[in-house]
Automatic annotation (TrEMBL):
<feature type="disulfide bond">
    <location>
        <begin position="103"/>
        <end position="355"/>
    </location>
</feature>
<feature type="binding site">
    <location>
        <position position="154"/>
    </location>
    <ligand>
        <name>Ca(2+) 1</name>
    </ligand>
</feature>
<feature type="binding site">
    <location>
        <position position="150"/>
    </location>
    <ligand>
        <name>Ca(2+) 1</name>
    </ligand>
</feature>
<dbReference type="InterPro" id="IPR019794">
    <property type="entry name" value="Peroxidases_AS"/>
</dbReference>
<feature type="active site" description="Proton acceptor">
    <location>
        <position position="137"/>
    </location>
</feature>
<keyword id="KW-0349">Heme</keyword>
<keyword id="KW-0575">Peroxidase</keyword>
<feature type="site" description="Transition state stabilizer">
    <location>
        <position position="133"/>
    </location>
</feature>
<keyword id="KW-1015">Disulfide bond</keyword>
<dbReference type="GO" id="GO:0000302">
    <property type="term" value="P:response to reactive oxygen species"/>
</dbReference>
<keyword id="KW-0732">Signal</keyword>
<keyword id="KW-0325">Glycoprotein</keyword>
<feature type="binding site">
    <location>
        <position position="285"/>
    </location>
    <ligand>
        <name>Ca(2+) 2</name>
    </ligand>
</feature>
<keyword id="KW-0106">Calcium</keyword>
<feature type="disulfide bond">
    <location>
        <begin position="124"/>
        <end position="205"/>
    </location>
</feature>
<feature type="binding site">
    <location>
        <position position="280"/>
    </location>
    <ligand>
        <name>Ca(2+) 2</name>
    </ligand>
</feature>
<feature type="binding site">
    <location>
        <position position="261"/>
    </location>
    <ligand>
        <name>Ca(2+) 2</name>
    </ligand>
</feature>
């Protein structure tokens, strides 16, 4: 009895505070609260930006320049992309000079990652795509009410990988654990390794943004709570609420799911293993947004029910439509939201360092050398090619390697 009176008084008090502080854009939030979870649909999905971690309590004068820059990114005023490149010669790994520069070991790690992430077609490989998803699944297991979790390395330091949410991440997990074994002695945490992998992978994909990359996260060997990652059959309401709990507003969510521009699904429908979410897997373009809206994209394009639901929701659709022809707008927004995602649960933002300078340069244009074969495959022909496309191998090269054999068989008649 006492408890329920207390609850009523608390909610009245909170209501009063909210009312007193309300501004024009706030009315929807108030109505949301009053309609007990039934969301208003006239909200356009661009909501006040929230701070996270230690930035919630530190004053501006206490912030390092790096943390001040992060704060401006989170508030939507600062850019989360950077083209600053380190052109100095990198000292050998293990040398004194290398140990003296936080970003030196990351430079070597970046070179190892690029080898795994870039394919001969110029597109990014299945490892790159999985690295982006791994970054999301480590950081995303967090909500505003979590005491711990988020971008803490736990996905590879615990048995989280066995969860059905994480199906498909086994290969990148093995590769990342091997990198960890090699680079952890030089001071790289698992949490940083995973988030760095995601930003290297993104910029290796043609047209991908060069996202500001921060290091200094602290590992956590405890599994994060379940139920914090989205499902492919979730409604727009469920997805939007889940991401709001991660401080990501509907526009932020729309920007982040654009990562499906590069993907090829394996487990949503196993009889369509390898089918991409737009007609350009391995390329960080905006085709995903347009093709998710199209009733009849190329036959092999496999739309996720969650993406379709989101694209139609009034809180998401205006931004979704803007991205259809908005590559640089999307890159900007994706980078901003990814910086936020990559810092969920991080409580020491004020002690992070920036190592963006060791990322490879962005590829600002891309033409597929093997478009002819890609087009055939997308129309449903030669399903066997899916495997090579997953590896970002140039199909032209593949055909080239078969030609001499054919010539031999056909006695030089081609
Ligand atoms: C609405 C929320 C989301 C849902 C329901 C969702 C669901 C999925 C599903 C079902 C797959 C296919 C897995 C498979 O069958 O192999 C997938 C792949 C992928 N997702 Fe998401 N996702 C969501 C948000 C995100 C976000 C926020 C990111 C990144 C920031 C992301 C990045 C990726 C990537 C890169 C892949 C491809 C992985 C690969 O090729 O191995 N997704 N997602
Ligand atoms: C999603 O829905 C489809 C079709 O109803 C179903 O076959 C599939 O198993 C569901 N997937 C998940 C992960 O619940
Ligand atoms: C999976 O794909 C196959 C082949 O296109 C289709 O016949 C089947 O209905 C799909 N299954 C589900 C659950 O959507």
């Amino acid at each position: 009895m006492k408890a329920s009176i207390f609850a009523v008084l608390t909610s009245l008090f909170l209501f009063h505070i909210q009312y007193a502080l309300s501004w024009p854009g706030m009315t929807t939030t108030l109505k949301d609260v009053m309609s007990m979870g039934k969301r208003q649909t006239n909200n356009d999905g661009d909501e006040p930006k929230e701070l996270i971690g230690d930035l919630l309590t530190l004053s501006d004068s206490q912030l390092t320049p790096v943390a001040a820059d992060i704060k401006s990114i989170l508030l939507g005023t600062g850019s989360a992309e950077s083209s600053t490149i380190d052109t100095t010669i990198t000292p050998p790994l293990g040398s004194k000079a290398c140990a003296a520069d936080t970003c030196c070991a990351y430079k070597w790690l970046s070179l190892a990652m690029i080898k795994k992430f870039a394919g001969s077609s110029g597109r990014c490989t299945r490892f790159a795509r999985a690295a982006v998803r791994l970054g999301f699944h480590d950081a995303g297991a967090w909500s505003k009410t979590s005491a711990f979790g988020g971008a803490d390395g736990s996905i590879l330091l615990t048995n989280e990988l066995d969860r059905v949410d994480n199906k498909g991440l086994q290969d990148i997990a093995a590769v990342t654990k091997a990198w960890y074994k090699q680079y952890q002695p030089y001071g790289i945490s698992m949490a940083d390794m995973i988030q760095f992998g995601a930003t290297v992978a993104t910029v290796v994909c043609p047209l991908g943004p060069r996202i500001k990359s921060y290091v200094g996260r602290i590992d956590n060997p405890k599994a994060n709570p379940e139920g914090l990652l989205p499902g492919v059959n979730d409604s727009a309401d469920k997805l939007i609420d889940m991401f709001r709990q991660k401080t990501i507003d509907p526009h932020g969510l729309v920007a982040l799911v654009g990562a499906h521009t590069t993907s090829q699904q394996h487990f949503v429908n196993i009889s369509r293993d390898g089918d991409p979410q737009d007609s350009t897997p391995g390329v960080w373009d905006v085709k995903f947004y347009g093709e998710t809206l199209q009733p009849n994209p190329p036959v092999r394009v496999f739309k996720f029910a969650s993406d379709v639901a989101l694209s139609k929701d009034p809180r998401a659709s205006s931004e979704w439509n803007e991205f259809v022809n908005g590559q640089s707008h999307w890159n900007e927004d994706y980078a901003q939201e990814y910086v936020r995602l990559s810092l969920l649960g991080v409580k020491n933002i004020n002690s992070l360092k920036e190592c963006t300078k060791v990322l490879p340069p962005a590829k600002k244009s891309y033409t597929a050398p093997d478009q002819l074969y890609l087009t055939l495959w997308l129309s449903g022909k030669y399903p066997q090619l899916g495997k090579y496309i997953d590896d970002a191998q140039s199909l032209l090269e593949l055909v080239g390697s078969i030609l001499p054999i054919l010539k031999n068989v056909l006695g030089g008649r081609i």
